[in-house]
Design a protein that fits this description.
- The protein has one helix at 20-34, and strands spanning 38-42, 45-49, 55-60.
- A hairpin with a 2-residue loop joins β1 and β2 (45-49).
- Helix content is 23%, strand content 25%.
- It is α+β, with helices and mostly antiparallel strands.
- A three-stranded antiparallel beta sheet has the order 1-2-3, with helices on one face.
- The chain starts with 19 loop residues before the first helix and ends with a strand.
- It is built from one helix and three strands; from the N terminus they run αβββ.
Amino acid sequence: DRGSPLSFGPLAGTMMACPDAVEAQERRFLAALTRVSDHVRYGAGLVMMDADGRAVLHLVETPE
């Protein structure tokens, strides 16, 4: 189920002190979002892709 074009930005992260691994993960996630230009939704999944159609992020909804 292809969606409409998609873009994010500018983005900002938290300024709170976090463990280095958490901070690095946040930076990678925000950097990936800036490369998103399209998406495909299927069931509980969402794949965000760059302008070349390469998967940048793959998100899966989980029950609470």
